[in-house]
């Protein structure tokens, strides 16, 4: 190993270790696959598999039998395509932007068609390349984000020639409130989706994300598309999380000190010690994806002991109150738990006033990543 690599490893070490448990990921895939059977289980690996590494995650899930992968942007599909065998389908949820069609066709990436314009462009591309091209058709069943509107579905039905040259593999729609089982919006969306799908009686259907899987069998369709649940996030709010944790994040202590009463801590001096307290500064901050909104409210953990964040989260560090620990319990370099056995993604997200998805997808690139 040359010295420049050494330096990179050392620097990364100091900023913490992000451990990604591919065994737990595999187990989560198997659990969800069993839950939705006989429907098939896809994997949503957009945003670099929610920050965990799209290539590593997708290859592991391929081993588990996953053959359908969803990314958000075409560029993500371009990057992932060489890492998966050709019998794995890669779908682009956001569809293709004009100009990307021929490249998508050439490398075997499958778009979701979200508008009549996208249908026309893909159909023309099929004409140009001289063969039928696959696509999924996305319809809006009540989220008003992506997919054909009811009017566009009608336009397509009266003019089926629009979709000639295209082999539609799946009819897709997406749920807006699947993580809230008591929310009646999901049943309304299911009814709307079913009504649309009667116009395409031969097409396999896909509606459920992670939350949708736990709404019950009628939501499973032919293909479920979980993301967060695969990565250990809770698919349903206000309920025990049935998934295994996949991510552990530990960040080392880089300095400790004892401060007298009245001492201000951190930017803005927003925290003042009421008594003499002991502090530890750890080597990651908002530039590493630890939200600044944790300032003065979140906590880290050491051997199960909660260590409240004292003052503001800085760009590259966080200061925590370690007075509850025995003197000397934390040495320089001692790893402190950010996410792990004592702090779930959901706990941290609640303190930061966000959701587990945002915590995961923003995990920084200065951590040393360890795949287990
Ligand atoms: C992100 C996304 C998913 C996965 O959602 P999770 O809640 O993470 O399971 C599924 N379908 C679509 C269309 C998405 O955008």
TrEMBL record:
Classification via SMART domains: Ala_racemase_C
Give yes or no: UniProt keyword Secreted: no
Q: Which reaction does it catalyse?
A: L-alanine = D-alanine
State the PROSITE patterns in the record: ALANINE_RACEMASE
The UniProt keywords, alphabetically, are: Isomerase, Plasmid, Pyridoxal phosphate
Q: Which residues carry this modification: N6-(pyridoxal phosphate)lysine?
A: 46
Regarding protein family, the annotation reads:
Belongs to the alanine racemase family.
Per its database record, what is this protein's job?
Catalyzes the interconversion of L-alanine and D-alanine. May also act on other amino acids.
Q: What is this protein called?
A: Alanine racemase
Q: Highest lineage ranks of the organism?
A: Bacteria, Pseudomonadati, Pseudomonadota, Alphaproteobacteria, Hyphomicrobiales
Protein's gene = dadB
């Amino acid at each position: 190993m040359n010295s420049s690599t050494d330096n990179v490893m050392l620097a990364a070490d100091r900023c913490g270790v992000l451990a990604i448990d591919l065994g737990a990921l595999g187990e989560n895939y198997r659990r969800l696959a069993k839950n939705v059977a006989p429907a098939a289980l896809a994997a949503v690996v957009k945003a670099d598999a929610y920050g965990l590494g799209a290539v590593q995650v997708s290859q592991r899930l391929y081993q588990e039998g996953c053959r359908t992968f969803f990314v958000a942007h075409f560029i993500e599909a371009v990057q992932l395509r060489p890492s998966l065998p050709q019998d794995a389908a890669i779908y682009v949820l956001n569809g293709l932007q004009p100009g990307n069609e021929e490249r998508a066709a050439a490398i075997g990436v499958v778009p979701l068609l979200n508008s009549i314009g996208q249908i026309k462009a893909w159909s023309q591309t099929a004409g140009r390349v001289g063969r039928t091209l696959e696509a999924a058709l996305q319809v809006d069943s009540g989220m008003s984000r992506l997919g054909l509107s009811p009017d566009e579905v009608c336009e397509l039905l009266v003019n089926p020639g629009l979709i000639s040259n295209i082999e539609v593999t799946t009819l897709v729609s997406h749920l807006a409130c699947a993580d809230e089982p008591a929310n009646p919006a999901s049943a309304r969306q299911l009814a709307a989706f079913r009504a649309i799908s009667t116009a395409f009686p031969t097409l396999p259907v896909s509606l459920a994300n992670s939350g949708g899987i736990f709404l019950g069998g009628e939501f499973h369709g032919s293909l479920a598309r979980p993301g967060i649940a695969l990565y250990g996030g809770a698919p349903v709010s206000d309920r025990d999380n049935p998934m295994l944790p996949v991510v552990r994040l530990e960040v080392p202590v880089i300095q400790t000190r004892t401060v007298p009463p009245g001492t201000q801590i951190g930017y803005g001096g927003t925290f003042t010690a009421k008594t003499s307290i002991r502090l530890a500064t750890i080597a990651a901050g908002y530039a590493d994806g630890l939200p600044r909104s944790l300032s003065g409210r979140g906590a880290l953990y050491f051997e199960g002991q909660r260590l409240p964040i004292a003052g503001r989260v800085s760009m590259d560090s966080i200061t925590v109150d370690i007075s509850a620990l025995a003197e000397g319990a934390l040495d320089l370099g001692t790893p402190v738990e950010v996410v792990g056995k004592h702090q779930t993604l959901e706990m941290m997200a609640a303190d930061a006033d966000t959701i587990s998805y945002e915590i995961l997808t923003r995990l920084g690139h200065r951590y040393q990543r360890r795949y287990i």
